[in-house]
Amino acid sequence: MAKQKKQPRPKAETPKGFRDYFGAEVTERQEMLRQIAEVYDRYGFDPLETSAVETVEALGKFLPDVDRPNAGVFAFEDDGTWMALRYDMTAPLARVAAQFRNELPSPYRRYTMGPVWRNEKPGPGRFRQFYQCDADTVGAPSVAADAEICAMLADTLEAVGIPRGDYIVRVNNRKVLNGVLEIIGDLEQPSFADGATWAEIHDRDVEDAVLRTADKFDKVGVEGVRQLLGEGRRDASGAFIEGVGLAPYQIDAVVSFLTARDSTNERTIANLNEVVSGSSEVGMEGVRELEQIANLLAAQGYGPDRIVIDPSVVRGLGYYTGPVYEAELTFEITDEKGRPRQFGSVAGGGRYDDLVKRFTGQEVPATGVSIGVDRLLAALRAKGRIHGTRQGPVIVTVMDRDRMADYQAMASDLRAAGIRAEVYLGNPKNFGNQLKYADKRESPVAVIQGSDEAARGVVQLKDLILGAKLAQDATLEEWKSQPAQTEVSRADLVQHVRAMMERHQ
Amino acid sequence: MAKQKKQPRPKAETPKGFRDYFGAEVTERQEMLRQIAEVYDRYGFDPLETSAVETVEALGKFLPDVDRPNAGVFAFEDDGTWMALRYDMTAPLARVAAQFRNELPSPYRRYTMGPVWRNEKPGPGRFRQFYQCDADTVGAPSVAADAEICAMLADTLEAVGIPRGDYIVRVNNRKVLNGVLEIIGDLEQPSFADGATWAEIHDRDVEDAVLRTADKFDKVGVEGVRQLLGEGRRDASGAFIEGVGLAPYQIDAVVSFLTARDSTNERTIANLNEVVSGSSEVGMEGVRELEQIANLLAAQGYGPDRIVIDPSVVRGLGYYTGPVYEAELTFEITDEKGRPRQFGSVAGGGRYDDLVKRFTGQEVPATGVSIGVDRLLAALRAKGRIHGTRQGPVIVTVMDRDRMADYQAMASDLRAAGIRAEVYLGNPKNFGNQLKYADKRESPVAVIQGSDEAARGVVQLKDLILGAKLAQDATLEEWKSQPAQTEVSRADLVQHVRAMMERHQ
């Protein structure tokens, strides 16, 4: 037989921009998602799991008219059909809501948890596969559906371990901003730096410019926003940023909206009323909706310590059509540079109306929230609620290769009592390697039985946690008074191991 | 502005060969996987979750030298690198074991659960995305690792709800078959129908032919196998299938191997010893390994009622290099044609040695099992352990649109008591629609409060399960004596709803 040319060895590498999750990284996420699912379930939401793959046609946005249409998605052709990995959970929901509209209950409350894929340049902390956890209500036009999701979001944060006071759900409404935009549009036409009047510029552009500027409110403050909405602003570096060119009273309207948040929801709503009242129908409708949301939540005991009307929430205002909401963690963490800063947003959502329309032509109202799974996990880690480690197994060491059955029986007894346990299955010749292995596994206890112990019906138990502690900082007296190794009867193995483990809890 | 040409609406369709999972389909799988993970964890296995994507280079088998190299996988090019969705869990484990060989403990016990993707023609019951649930031990050469996985497999089946007696883990060893092949090779050269002698045919071909034939043992029985290993066989349709052309004593050796299973593991092992003893070193080693496995398991209480040495297990013998094991469910189900048949295999695995070698050149022993998640779920359904339904939420109906806050507060109270509950969020005008919705949600109880009830501080509770039952088969007396609707104080809402739900458990 002709010898084949030797192939070079493949590289063992995680693909660029992807991650591998080990041990606690998997179980802690699973446990958090399980807690979230429990809350969602209690609110009547039903799970949905679509496949990772959708047709590019159903995903929308991406046209299969080029060889590789994966602008933002991972796409491939199959039998003449372009398919792609889902880039979010909303597009598959839209497809399902249209496809199964006759079978699904209406309203349809669904939650879903799983990975999504983005074909973006990988960067530090930016991955091309990550988890999303969404809950949406499809087919409920009333703001009671939005209020419900806000309450559920608050419950969810507490359920996973963010205590009350460490988070706030902030609620705004796109319709109020629409009212503000209507009001400024109805007022005198401003003229722009290049001499063009507003009328000459598409409404949408001004809208976008106002939204973009509002989005900088957190960063540049009231004065900065005023400048950016007006003539422009010179930033810290000395660079000049062109302004939107609004007139002062137009700027006032936008700023009154952004700064309407007051000490109580009632006062905030009164402030908003002042901005739009009598001037914009849609704006007043938006304020009424916020008032309803606040009342519905108050009736269920969700006061402004948990959910607050806050018109400075502008993230997503460009995308959503009605109420928007955002969950923010308010405790401080230390950033990479050692400076304290607020943890910030971990979830956001709002109302959108064109969910199913692309498929059926019918408008179906929908509202929903997406939790940033990795950010929320990072928050729990920052709060010390999860630790990135799990209980290692008890290691039954192997002193005598021929007595493997005895060692397996010990591990089996421990497991039957619910204790995580395993027999060392590497080469047992070097006992030091067995203890090194136990160390790497973060094992709490090592079980040792040589032929002498076997003959006497006993085992040695080595308390590895105490051992590590003593090795670190014990005095000679402590070493003597707290023996990290004890001999117990084989018959009492389970009971003694359990006691040893409980000592460290 | 020029009006854009109207795009045709996209089709709302699950991509061909993929599935959407709703409600209980999601939660029942999750719950089963959670139970499995608990057992795996107790055995010291650690979770691993790799990304869905691997480089085609790391996956192996698939060469990126054509435009679309996805023979069997879904592949796409990214920045000059071909990547693909994983088609199983073993290839990613191989990559991880090589990449992190210095960080991971050795032996490394890992489990993993998640979807895999196969680019195959979709067919009935054959999907292009499905779940796998694997556990493997990497770097443990001893058969104690194989025995451990067999015990874990038995524990797992019981943990998810397959009672002892309804399953059997069957164990075989490739090495014994190798011994048999060695023996027949050492004997006289048979001549084939076309006049060629065995020596003229590559060994591998005979090996494959014997494996393929052995694989038909379940179907054609001893006599059928004898014919197929010899001259050939005429099947039920009258068609003649060419035989392998072995001589009678060679056939005897293979058949003695396949039929070696006896009333006890000891006798089975004695039978196997007779087949290979003194004639094949590797065959004897294989028998010794089976004996060790049986002894290790017996010492932990896993007798032949749970795990049995059975040389008729041939599935996978072509792939694995040492022990192979298979979990079979032994209870009967009714197939599509109404005939009773055994449920069959739900998990399989074995020992393989070339896991990491592709990457590092070093041989690393590994053994592992893969559970067919969908088949095991189907088995639990067949056994009535899961039902494909979940508890629907209590529905708080809306009689008075302005009192939404009161209704939300009721749902909130119920949830706080751990009861799944929701307010009807569709258009409340038609009360019949609300009850139809409750029906679709399989709601146990509807809560009703009109303005009259509100004034009196009471609510009506409608027992929907009892109502459905009465509607089906109640007499007039029963209708009267078991009122499906009762009035209770608003203050006692939770307590009465709970009692109503408990009545049906």
UniProtKB/TrEMBL annotation, chains A, B:
Cellular location of this protein? Cytoplasm
> What HAMAP family does the annotation carry?
His_tRNA_synth
Superkingdom to which the source organism belongs: Bacteria
Q: Which UniProt keywords apply?
A: Aminoacyl-tRNA synthetase, ATP-binding, Cytoplasm, Ligase, Nucleotide-binding, Protein biosynthesis
The UniProt catalytic activity note for this protein reads: tRNA(His) + L-histidine + ATP = L-histidyl-tRNA(His) + AMP + diphosphate + H(+)
Question: PROSITE patterns from the entry?
Answer: AA_TRNA_LIGASE_II (PS50862)
Q: What is this protein called?
A: Histidine--tRNA ligase
Native species: Roseicyclus elongatus DSM 19469
